[in-house]
Design a protein that fits this description.
The complex is a heterodimer. Chain A is mainly alpha-helical. Helices cover 76% and strands 0% of the residues of chain A. Chain A is flat, with a radius of gyration of 25 Å. In chain B, a hairpin with a 2-residue loop joins strand 12 and strand 13.
């Protein structure tokens, strides 16, 4: 009797598993298909692309398209490839990420450990800032950059991204520091530590999980941004996202699909790299509490 | 070491008065306990002594120096927190010496202090561990070590044993008591546990709703509670309260009680006769502690203050050293403590001895003790 039940459940189990796996594999294929096509196309020569099938593997692998995308493709009037723009992006993304993370952590620290009259109202306003769409900010930001004299420069772009990212970074750090027991600050005050000492010696060393989260988030947001890049920079200073758009839209006769694909992958590689390296720390950091017991 | 003066201290949050005028004088080397239920203001008062909270009005003086406007680090105090508040990113050694480092104490002196403190608390083998590698009791010791290293005039403890399990709590309690005896330090200790209050303190301040209800030695608070709240708060199982009228029987004043269908009177002891005379015919609340109601074997000889009665047992609860019996007097459940071998059975009558020498009486309206 027991055996019969066992096989029945095993049978039902098997069908269930088959369905789940089937669905998962189908979705995985669906998601990976575009990437597959991109990689495969970027490794083919133009003749092969024209005559061949979208999903077919390259008969002859060539890195010609990659070389062209990097160094000689035309983005608008210039024909220097993406390498200049790649370094442009790096030049403003790194300071923007660092500054917005530091300021965000400082904000989070003040909002949780040194509450003052109106600190909760201030936090609510910052929270609302997370939901403001990019587009709403464009005009006032353009005016501000003009007033500050940093319009149309890398500094200006860094400023824009820092300001826009502050809402998120403050939120991350504030939510993390809320889990730090208030007694820790009190004990430090009794020990004689002041405002900055407590931040530097006690709070920051506790923060690596959330710093990683913040850096990954900000890097992804800022590197992949198109709107601020296209509005607040021009010509040689443009970030890689804008340059990519220009590259794909520039046609001098033949549309070079393999170069376009290679360029797109180049533009996306840094964020992919960050996720591969630090992805698991992202999840861990989001769910981490600061101090136990 | 120094004394502590709390003079008419009031704390207001907006229009709400959380502390309504506290007056406490703590002598040099004294162990003062602040005890009371949640929300009574004891932690607020401790924070104000430490300088972590501002004082709305009144004065606090440590060692004759008024400290109202001094920051915590200038008050020469050290505090041990309920959550230990150890710095998680520093080793035990660095946790203890953090305060010394901030105050720029010389490195050799720092090491000397850390070694001395570690020896006192028997944690030399823990010095290089991180807080996350310590058990609760060890963390508590490190927290105390951090306080000891400061060598302050005043030690403040904020419910330090509340996060420990029962057995560890008892052990640490003894350690704290020994430490106090060795160091002769002035200590203010906040707890909600009345057993900690009774066993540790030189004097106990029982607080409720922002007011000190009684400030006296443990035995005094136990035997002569100032009001109904203090009487019910101190002692476990708590004192029995029975509402009864004052009557006169055979020339002696006492109270009338009913058990089952019988009515009888408990005569009050001699010192209480006068105060009760004014209340003849009125209702009072009588307080009698469970250990004053025992089985017949407990007392011997003729004691005018001992009364024998038989009562019906409702519930039997063995605790090991004694057995708690529930009876009903005046339809109020009354807990009694009898010897485990007194063979009490629920539903059956049991001969009990009432020790009336320690009776206390409270006014039903003001809840203050009248006698």
């Amino acid at each position: 009797m027991a055996d019969r039940v066992q096989t029945q459940t095993a049978g039902a189990d098997w069908t269930r598993r088959a369905i789940v796996y089937g669905l998962l594999i189908a979705f995985a294929l669906y998601y990976l298909m575009p990437l597959f096509v991109m990689v495969v196309t970027s490794l083919k020569s133009l003749d092969e692309i024209r005559s061949g099938n979208l999903l077919a593997l390259p008969a002859r692998v060539t890195l010609e398209a990659w070389g062209k995308a990097w160094a000689s493709a035309c983005t608008g009037v210039q024909c220097d490839g993406l390498k200049g723009n790649f370094w442009n992006s790096v030049r403003f993304v790194v300071p923007a990420v660092v500054i917005s993370t530091l300021v965000g952590s400082f904000n989070g620290y003040v909002l949780t450990m040194w509450r003052f009259r109106g600190s909760d109202a201030l936090f609510t306003m910052l929270l609302v800032g997370c939901f403001i769409p990019f587009q709403v900010v464009l005009l006032p930001m353009a005016q501000t950059l003009g007033i500050l004299g940093i319009a149309n420069s890398t500094t200006g772009l860094v400023f824009v991204h820092v300001v826009y990212g502050l809402a998120f970074t403050t939120l991350f750090f504030r939510n993390f520091y809320v889990t730090v027991p208030a007694d820790l600050t009190r004990a430090a005050r009794i020990d004689g530590a002041g405002f900055f000492t407590i931040f530097w010696r006690i709070i920051l060393p506790l923060s690596p999980p959330i710093i990683v989260v913040c850096v990954i988030w900000q890097f992804t947001q800022i590197w992949n941004d198109f709107l601020f890049g296209v509005v607040f920079s021009s010509g040689q200073q443009q970030p890689i996202t804008v340059a990519l758009n220009n590259l794909v839209n520039t046609s001098t006769g033949v549309k070079e699909y393999n170069v376009d694909m290679a360029a797109a992958i180049i533009a996306g590689l840094p964020t992919l790299f960050v996720y591969i390296v630090a992805g698991k720390y992202f999840m861990r950091g989001l769910t981490a509490g600061a101090v136990k017991g | 070491m120094a004394d502590l003066s709390i003079r008419n201290v009031i704390k207001r949050y907006g229009s709400v008065e959380v502390l309504k005028g506290i007056d406490i004088e703590v002598k040099d080397g004294e162990f003062l306990i602040l005890v009371g239920p949640s929300g009574c203001g004891k932690s607020t008062l401790l924070n104000m002594i430490a300088g972590l909270d501002t004082i709305s009005s009144g004065e606090i003086a440590i060692g004759r120096r008024i400290v109202n406007d001094l920051s915590p680090k200038d008050r020469d105090i050290a505090m041990v927190f309920q959550s230990y508040a150890l710095y998680p990113n520093m080793s035990v050694r660095n946790n203890i010496s953090f305060g010394l480092k901030i105050r720029k104490v010389a490195k050799e002196k720092q090491d000397e202090i850390v070694t001395r403190v570690a020896k006192t608390l028997q944690m030399e083998h823990l010095l290089d561990r991180m807080p996350s590698q310590l058990s609760g009791g060890q963390r508590q010791r490190v927290a105390m070590g951090r306080a000891l290293a400061r060598d302050p005039a005043l030690f403040l403890f904020d419910e330090p044993l509340s996060n420990l399990d029962a057995k560890l709590r008892v052990e640490m309690r003894t350690e704290i008591k020994l430490l106090h005896e060795r160091l002769k330090a002035t200590i203010v200790y906040v707890t909600h546990d009345q057993i900690e209050a009774m066993t540790l303190g030189d004097r106990i301040a029982v607080m409720k709703d922002g007011v000190v209800r009684q400030l006296a030695s443990p035995q005094e608070v136990y035997d002569n509670p100032a009001d109904l709240f203090v009487a019910g708060f101190i002692g476990s199982p708590s004192m029995n309260f029975i509402r009864c009228p004052v009557v006169e029987q055979a020339g002696r004043l006492g109270v009338q009680l009913k058990e089952g269908s019988e009515t009888f009177a408990f005569p009050a002891p001699a010192p209480l006769q006068e105060p009760l005379r004014a209340r003849l015919g009125q209702e009072v609340i009588m307080g009698i502690r469970p250990e004053q109601i025992t089985d017949k074997t407990a007392f011997s000889g003729d004691n005018p203050n001992v009364l024998n009665r038989v009562a019906k047992v409702e519930v039997v609860q063995p605790t090991g050293p004694d057995t708690l019996i529930l009876i009903h007097l005046n339809d109020v459940p009354v807990t009694c403590r009898v010897h485990p071998e007194a063979s009490a059975r629920p539903g059956l009558p049991l001969a009990l001895m009432f020790d009336l020498s320690k009776l206390v009486f409270f006014d039903p309206t003001t809840e203050k003790r009248i006698a």
